[in-house]
Predict the structure.
Amino acid sequence: MKSKRINLWGLFWAVLALLYFFLPMYGTFEFSLRMKKGVYTFLAYEAVLADPQFLESFQYSVVMGLITITLSVLLFVPTIYWVYLRVPKARPILEIVTILPFIIPVIVFVFGLVRTFSRPPFQLTLSPAKTDILMVAGYIILCMPYMFRSIDIGMRAIDVRTLTEAAQSLGANWVQILINVILPNLRIAILSGALISFATVIGELILGDYLFRPALGAYMVRIGDSKLYEPAALAIISYALTWTCLGLIQFFSRGGTSQQQLTGR
C-alpha cells in the first residue's frame, strides 16, 4: 500500500511537471498559428523565415556559436588535462571560477564588459570586428559552466595519468597525447558541452542587445516590439533548436555508452 501511494505521488508530480513545461509551449504554438483570423496557418513562421534580418541574425549566431565552441575546447581541454595531471588541488578553485556565470547576473557581467573594453587601452567597441571579439569572449564566459562540467566529467571517466604515461612510453609528445589520446576519449563529453553551449549562444539576448550586434536573441527582442504573432513563432523555433540539441546529446551519449560496453571499457 505504501509503495502504491509513493507511485501515485510520483505520477502526480510527473504529470504536474509535464503540464508546467508543455502547457505554455502549447499555448505559444497555438497562438502562433492564429495570424489569419479563424484559420490555423503557418503564416507567422513563413514571415519569420522569409525575413532577411532573421536569416542574418541566425547565420551570425551560428557562426558565433561555432567559434565559441572551438575556442572553448582549445581553452578548457588542455587546462583541465593539466590540472588533473599536475595540480589536482587546483580543481576546486576551477570549479568555483567556472560557476561564477551562474552567480553574477548576465546584465551586470555585460555592463562590466562594455565599461571595461569600450575605453582605452582596449576600445573593442569601435568597429564590428572588434566587437565580435568581445562577443565571443563573453559567450565563452557564459558557456564556461557547461563546457567545463562536461569535459570535467569526461576527464573523470578516464585514467589520465595511465594514458599519458603509456603514450609517453611510446614516444608521444604533449601535443600528440592531447590530440591522439585524450581528445578521442572525450568526444562524447565535448559534444555534450558543445551542444549546450550552442543552444546558449543561440538563445542569449543581453550580450547582443547591449553590444548592438545582429544576434538572434537581440532580433527576438526587436521583433517583439512591432509584431504580434511572429515572436510566438520565433519562440517555438528557438524551443525546437534547444530540444534538438538536447536530443542530440542524449543520442550521442547512448551511442558512446553502448560502444564502451562493446569494447569493454
Q: What stands out?
A: The chain has one domain: 58-230+241-263. Residues 187 and 202 are 22 Å apart (CA to CA).
